[in-house]
Queue: 2 jobs
Job 1
Amino acid sequence: MLKPKKHIFVCTSSRPNGQQKGFCHTKAGVDILNNFREEIEERGLGGEVFISNTGCFGLCEQGPIVVVYPENVWYGAVVPDDVEEIMDEHIEGDNVVKRLEL
Amino acid sequence: MLKPKKHIFVCTSSRPNGQQKGFCHTKAGVDILNNFREEIEERGLGGEVFISNTGCFGLCEQGPIVVVYPENVWYGAVVPDDVEEIMDEHIEGDNVVKRLEL
């Protein structure tokens, strides 16, 4: 299969039973997810950059959480307006956004 | 932060709006997730092996899908009874389970 060069995971507090409770969901996790989806599409990166929503990572007090693999970089206290910078610097530029890194 | 050595992602078709529809959810995605959680706990690997449920990866016809990072290994048509083998061979043994790899 065509594997992603980068895979962005955004916590949306999506519980496996279909419920949705928790911190990241109430703190713009879904908006962050949607902003990443739009940026990936607008930049034509859909074939190489994947985006997924997830359940809780257990770091609620540091959320909203965004994780990028294969780098294993964890970002905390992300807001929707940070998405463009993460895309520019990290996803396209391969530089970790240090100010958001956990 | 303490980062995972391996991070297992299991599709449970968890949509960011809280709905839960799709293939993997109806095909034992939640049972697979729960089996991984039990195996990680029983083996005392909770500090180094993380497990998360996700939304759809867009590979429904090949599901249920399990992804392991940072290796970027994708498994398809996983059944709950495959979890022990993935834990033994891949998570603890660092050998990809070729028969399930996409």
Job 2
Amino acid sequence: MHPSSDPPGRRTWVIPEGYIPQDDDGGEQDPRFRGHETACVLNCGDRDASLAITLYFADREPAGPYRVRVPARRTLHLRFNDLDDPEPVPRETDYASVIESDVPVVVQHTRLDSRRQALALLSTMAWST
Amino acid sequence: MHPSSDPPGRRTWVIPEGYIPQDDDGGEQDPRFRGHETACVLNCGDRDASLAITLYFADREPAGPYRVRVPARRTLHLRFNDLDDPEPVPRETDYASVIESDVPVVVQHTRLDSRRQALALLSTMAWST
Amino acid sequence: MHPSSDPPGRRTWVIPEGYIPQDDDGGEQDPRFRGHETACVLNCGDRDASLAITLYFADREPAGPYRVRVPARRTLHLRFNDLDDPEPVPRETDYASVIESDVPVVVQHTRLDSRRQALALLSTMAWST
Amino acid sequence: MHPSSDPPGRRTWVIPEGYIPQDDDGGEQDPRFRGHETACVLNCGDRDASLAITLYFADREPAGPYRVRVPARRTLHLRFNDLDDPEPVPRETDYASVIESDVPVVVQHTRLDSRRQALALLSTMAWST
């Protein structure tokens, strides 16, 4: 385990890629296979993390901040599909995200695309300065 | 939101992998599923970004620069398929790209391959010094 | 080959994303196609590496450390599915992992998902400070 | 274009993940869809790059160096399947690779898996100190 003084992580993370298909998802009934865009956040420190997420678009001003909490020593696999305050994430729309935290965290971006029955996956670490 | 003095990002990004299949795309009619190679660029600062993209090949001199603009506080999911000035990106040809910006941006590389009906996805952050 | 004094690597690696489906794996019989979550570890130095892996969850305290050894000049493609001491990795449960090594190593995260017959793959370098 | 004095890149790159299926590839006839493990190397400087690739395994000493040249201002999408001097890369065997260059280059790892007809893709930047 990590000493509380020095958990690995950064306070700002950037994910330039984002896209959520229409919710119908090809008639998928099983929630495990429903398509989603996820930011996997790990807070391995001893203080709860308060995140502020800002979404950027191609042709309008940014949306947010979306407020999310990740408790100490916990991971949150946050689905962008579920964000709805201050506004839902528009479907079939290119977006990008910046995640700011008040304590160090690590963020990985993952997408499951199930529109064509066969699953497709992508993942990459988010970018941090 | 970020203070305009210090938006996260870098001015030079490198994507060694690039390959665009033939345009026919297996007869795909729906543009959402058409295969593409994308550089997702986020400019979360308060100044517009002017990009200069250079393409490198296996056996000829580089092409470019391709000039692209990403406005302040906007993201551009740029499809290499659409670049055509000074010349189109050749199909079925290995290439690599270097993206230079006059202000800090963040770049993520994504490919959607739909040649076999089932989708395949890859994504990674571009590399920056 | 690398001089033993300076093998490339880091001592702490973070993988925020983790998820293992139910073991049945859609009736897959061929072990090559069985779904798995993997941490590919390379120890290219001249001293054996002792790893301590800690798993983080959404709603309980972390598990571990899991102890794993990677000999000098060897790679280990470690399947999280196989970890069982001090406890198995729960299925269908979001988790994250931190890998700590006593010598420098490099870690890449890969998932093969075969739940829908068609394979889906993701991979990214783990994150290191 | 980049001034020759300062091309972006690094001299050492690490890819912990590597695995080449059996060559039969499910009877695939079309070379574009044949499965492969690739290291995409970009040399955007003005001097040719001489690469030395070392392969690491789970249970034997490393193989190599494999010698590869990437000319100035060129990219090489190198298929590990094609390496055969000093020895072919064993099939169905976990391996890892370290790529050392005498000038700065950038390396991205990509795998196309076509064993199940539907394509699966993964990609990530290689790791550099």
